[in-house]
Structure formats: structure tokens, C-alpha cells
Design a protein that fits this description.
Strand content: 5-15%
CATH superfamily of the largest domain: P-loop containing nucleotide triphosphate hydrolases
Number of helices: 11
Distance between the termini: 54 Å
Low-confidence stretches: none
Structural class: alpha/beta
Number of strands: 6
Order of helices and strands: HEHEHEHHHEHEHEHHH
Largest sheet: 6 strands, parallel
Strand order of the largest sheet: 3-2-4-5-1-6
């Protein structure tokens, strides 16, 4: 598939050594473009680390890791002021130190779930490569759609769940931004328009009628797949299924 003008501009920006924030709604070709960029950079003998904020997003790429694992930050239990020293001095993080020092370009997909706190901690960790430069001089490519999933708060570790772009550091290190606007995943203009309105939270009467027209009666099936929006809801449902299961419960 040929690249469109927006995608070509992104490739040119990254190939020129700039940090880039790549935005675009679902279906605009971000994943396809990232794979193309990886091939381009590797042909230039660049060491590229492909990461994402979720394990599911990592599955879209070969040899990708979550940014939490790649950076050694993990669940964020260490404060920004101490995380660099922890990773620098703890023998358990030897592989993390090696990855950071060898990486030329760091790609982070699904950046909408990257929090302000994590973004700033990541900057400190990457400075293990060069403490005199933001992110240790590693070139950055952040990709995602800030209208999708936000960062997950974690009060236990002081994670407020603020967006990464709320950090003062964000605009300094990511001055170049390209937004992909052409939807490639589907060609149904009515569906594309409806998805766009829902994503921005401004649903017209026409879109509401279109969504309602998709309703249909479903057969009742107690064994059907259940979908939940949070892990804790999944855990609660699974626990209840175990409790309701016939027989004696052992722990």
C-alpha cells in the first residue's frame, strides 16, 4: 500500500532526525506507518525500540515491549527523583541499562495512556544514556489518539492519571506534530462520520439515528462472551463464576 502525503511527511520528519508526535483517529494508518518507519530507520543502521503502553498494542509489532518493561519503570512505584538511580545501581536492571544506551530511536504507541508522571520518569531513565540531553538524546516517536483511552490513575503510587501533554517537558521535546486525517480502515462514509462524532462527544441527530438503526434482536445466551471495560470488573465476574460453580470450593 502506497503512503499518502501525510504519511510521507511523517517519514521525512523522522528520517531527518526530528522527534515526532504522530496523531490520528482509528483506521488512519498509524500502525502501518510505524512499521514502515521502522524499516526505513533500520536501513539507516539505527537501533529502534518499538514499545507501547499496553501489551495488546505490542502484539501488533514484532519484538515490541511495553514501555513500562523496556524502561524498567514498571508499575511506577519509584518517584521520578529516584528512578534513575534505582535503575543505574541495581543489578536487576542491567538489561534495561544496555537497551537504553544502545537505542537511537524510541517509538511509543498508544501514547494517550502515557501519563505526565510516567513521561517525566521516562525522561530521567533515558538520561542514563546522556544526562545533558532530554531523554538522553534518544529520538522519540509518540503515536496515538488522545480521544481514546486516557492514563490510568494509581493513588497507591501517587499516579494522578494526567495526560503526558500536560507536562511542561512535552512541548519542548515534541515540537513536530503530524495528524493523519484520511481513514483507510473502512470506506463507509456514514460509519466514518458517526465514529468521528462519537469520538469528539458531539453526536448529531442523524448519527444517533444511524447508530439506532444498527440495533437488532439477539438470542439470549448465558454462555455468551462478556466484555468489561476494566480489569477489576473482569476479576469480580470471574470470582462470582467460581463461587457459583457446583461443588466444594478449595483454596
Amino acid at each position: 500500500m502506497a503512503l499518502n502525503s501525510e504519511q510521507l511527511a511523517a517519514v521525512d520528519c523522522i528520517s531527518s532526525g526530528h522527534n515526532l508526535l504522530l496523531l490520528g483517529a482509528a483506521g488512519t494508518g498509524k500502525t502501518f506507518l510505524i512499521k514502515h518507519i521502522c524499516k526505513t530507520l533500520k536501513s539507516q543502521n539505527k537501533v529502534v525500540a518499538v514499545t507501547a503502553t499496553t501489551g495488546i498494542a505490542c502484539c501488533l509489532y514484532d519484538s515490541a515491549q511495553t514501555i513500562h518493561r523496556w524502561s524498567g519503570i514498571g508499575d511506577g512505584r519509584f518517584h521520578c527523583k529516584e528512578i534513575r538511580q534505582v535503575i543505574k545501581n541495581n543489578v536487576k536492571f542491567a538489561d534495561v541499562r544496555k537497551k537504553i544506551k544502545n537505542t537511537d530511536v524510541l517509538i511509543i504507541d498508544e501514547c494517550s495512556m502515557l501519563s505526565k508522571n510516567f513521561f517525566e520518569c521516562l525522561n530521567e531513565v533515558c538520561k542514563l544514556k546522556d544526562e545533558n540531553q532530554h531523554f538522553g538524546g534518544i529520538q522519540l516517536l509518540l503515536s496515538g489518539d488522545f480521544r481514546q483511552l486516557p492514563p490510568v490513575p494509581n493513588p497507591l503510587y501517587g499516579e494522578q492519571g494526567e495526560f503526558c501533554f500536560e507536562s511542561n517537558l512535552f512541548s519542548k521535546v515534541l515540537p513536530h506534530r503530524i495528524t493523519l486525517t484520511t481513514v483507510l480502515r473502512q470506506s463507509d462514509t456514514e460509519l466514518i462520520h458517526a465514529i468521528h462524532e462519537v469520538s469528539i462527544g458531539n453526536v448529531s441527530a442523524e448519527t444517533a439515528l444511524f447508530i439506532e438503526s444498527l440495533q437488532r434482536p439477539l438470542e439470549k445466551d448465558d454462555n455468551c462472551i462478556k466484555l468489561f471495560s476494566r480489569n477489576e470488573q473482569v476479576d469480580d465476574y470471574n470470582r462470582q463464576c467460581i463461587v457459583d460453580f457446583p461443588g466444594e470450593l478449595y483454596e
